[in-house]
Amino acid sequence: MTIDYALIAARSRNSVIGRDDEIPWHVKGEQALFKKITLGGCLLMGRRTFESIGRALPGRISIVITRQQDYAPEGCHVAHTLEAAFHSAEQTKRPIFVIGGGELYASTLAQARWVHLTTIDLEVNGNVYFPPFPTANFTCIHTEHFQSNHAYCYQTFERNPTENV
Ligand SMILES: NC(=O)c1ccc[n+]([C@@H]2O[C@H](COP(=O)([O-])OP(=O)(O)OC[C@H]3O[C@@H](n4cnc5c(N)ncnc54)[C@H](OP(=O)(O)O)[C@@H]3O)[C@@H](O)[C@H]2O)c1
Q1: Tell me, what DSSP letter sits at residue 110?
Q2: Is 48 a member of any domain?
């Protein structure tokens, strides 16, 4: 059985999503967009991303993925494999969002049904990247441009239907 889930990420023009433990920009309005899209959902995140956020995000269920057996962040569920994380997420009956970081995006993009991708109009130095995207498997179904302290563009991509053979 396949599980429908979305990735949500913000990247620079050169596909940077992070520098060490941080997101290397501050763009007014972009966090509000993230909140609007994910509110009420179930969030899957890597342990490093959780620690960079520092807390469970309100109005959403957080599942932190780690190989550390004794990891117990307050207000979050913990999973030790991707399979266990998606299984727990599915039980919540909420929309599922993979919110990062680079390691999680790289291991979940191949099966994602939707990708919510914000591209910040900046070239930045960083050491964590979003995987090469879009691919021919996805179609852009929504595009919205925003002016702020840095311009940014929000797009929704949906996986193309596969034909039954
Ligand atoms: N721009 C954006 O939209 C965005 C969004 C999110 C994050 N970020 C940035 O991305 C960076 C963090 O990304 P990252 O790639 O370094 O780390 P990450 O993907 O957030 O977390 C990696 C950690 O998750 C755990 N993990 C990953 N795959 C696992 C698996 N299959 N089974 C069990 N555990 C697994 C491991 O934790 P343990 O080491 O504990 O075992 C691993 O070290 C930060 O700079 C952050 O600011 C940017």
Answers
A1: G
A2: yes
Model confidence at 165, in pLDDT bands (50, 70, 90)?
low
pTM: 0.97
CB 101 within 8 A of CB 86: no
Within a domain: residue 11?
Answer: no
Q: How many domains does the chain have?
A: 1
Question: CB within 8 A of 147, min separation 6: which ones?
Answer: none
Q: Best substitution site from 104, 127, 129 to test ligand 1's pocket, by max atoms within 8 Å of Cβ? A: 104
Is 112:97 a contact under the CB 8 Å cutoff?
A: no
The domain of 28 spans: 17-159
Q: Is the CB of 116 under 6 A from ligand 1?
A: no
In a domain, 117, yes or no: yes
Q: Does ligand 1 have an atom closer than 6 angstroms to the CB of 102?
A: yes
For ligand 1, mutation pick of 53, 57, 103, 115 (most atoms within 8 Å of CB): 103
Q: What is the mean pLDDT of the chain?
A: 96
Output the domain CATH number for residue 102: 3.40.430.10
* Domain contains 12: no
* Token pair 């207000």: residue: 75
Tell me the CA–centroid distance for residue 104 and ligand 1, in Å.
Answer: 6
